[in-house]
Amino acid sequence: MSLEKFINQAVSSWMSDDGPDSDIVLSSRIRFARNLDEYNFPTLFTNGEAEAVVGTIMERASNTSIAAFGQLEMIKMDEIPPLQKRVLVEKHLISPNLAENSVHGAVLLSENEEVSIMINEEDHIRIQCLFPGFQLSEALKTANEIDDWLEDYVNYAFDEKFGYLTSCPTNVGTGLRASVMMHLPGLVLTQQMNRIVPAINQLGLVVRGIYGEGSEALGNIFQISNQITLGKSEEDIVDDLKSVVSQIISQERSAREALAKTSNIQLEDRVFRSYGTLANSRIIETKEAARCLSDLRLGIDMGFIKNISKSILNELMILTQPGFLQQYAGGPLRPNERDIRRAALIRERLKMETKDESGG
Q: I need a labelling partner for 128 at 20 to 30 A (CA). Which of 117, 226, 252, 356 fits?
């Protein structure tokens, strides 16, 4: 399979489409945790109850479609190989927990992959909407529509005092996790992130890496999300996060302007060195690739590089993960083989940009 065809099949809309403030905010995500009233929660349910939950959601999905997204495709975790599960995790469409630990787990996916509904993860249902750029309100609106679509058919576990009941107490209340994925090289290079992260935490928000809890902030990509789900409305939670993210966007732009004024030639040199590494390396590890891709994207945003689309960071941060590399290769790869494949894929992807620019 050609790389171009592989990318067309593999890239979700949040990776390739533009959105508001997409020079800094790569994606916006809303996730609802829900449980069905008539069954034990996944921490205690039987295999029979797990199967019944899947059957209930499958029946809802097969009987009606969601107006904006059409029919949803059901994928059962026990019917796909581990490599395909890993790819779904790398695309942020399912959680590692669903891929590795779920009993009778499944996911419903919209065709454009903006919507995924995980079944029998930590909770019976996890509704996720993932949009490009800074679109938290739009993602919330869609998530609420899907939530209503499901609630017309099932009874949620709900308490008048505590709200939606969930397996983990930290999700009780709205069951809402709102998050944005941000590219913040300016704040990292000006050494401001160490000051900003504790300030964000004091506001009831949390800063994590690209794959959420426990993951590393590779390529200067940070995920910022709410921690509080009880005692606030969904709109208030999202508005609070939007306010903080708007300030971070402003600070990142100021940091980039400061770098352009005080260290422009050094910054340009850094960008083109990274570009050269990506365009010519025969072996490259994940961390080095992430750092160089971050520099390349910064160079594109700041106008140093004009012939490469800015979606390259979003795409290649995902496509160079181990699952995707092995899927593209058609089978398992040892770590060194993945590093070779990663370098080759990046070189070929950059050549595609040059080819498009020349009209070839």
A: 252
pTM above 0.85, yes or no: yes
- Residue 65 has a pLDDT of 66
Q: List the binding residues.
A: 27-31, 92, 126, 177-181, 208-213
217-255: pLDDT as tens digits: 789 999 999 988 888 999 999 999 999 999 999 999 999
pLDDT digits (tens, 9 = 90+) for 62-109: 776 676 666 788 899 999 999 999 999 999 999 999 998 777 899 999
The last residue of one of the domains, among 173, 196, 230, is: 173
Pairing of strands 205-208, 221-226: antiparallel
24 and 137 together in one domain: yes
Written as six digits, the tokens of 271 are 């960008």
Binding residues for ATP: 27-31, 92, 126, 177-181, 208-213
Residue position matching structure tokens 């409305």: 233
- Structure tokens of 25? 């905010």
The domain in which residue 57 lies consists of 2-173
16 contacts 314 by C-beta, under 8 angstroms: yes
Q: Which long-range contacts (CB under 8 A, 24 or more apart) does 120-123 make?
A: 120/42, 120/50, 120/53, 120/54, 121/42, 121/94, 121/95, 121/97, 122/33, 122/42, 122/43, 122/97, 122/166, 122/167, 122/168, 123/33, 123/34, 123/35, 123/41, 123/42, 123/166, 123/167, 123/171, 123/175
* Ranges under pLDDT 50 in the chain: 358, 360
Residue 239 burial (C-beta neighbours within 10 Å; 0-12, 13-18, 19+)? middle
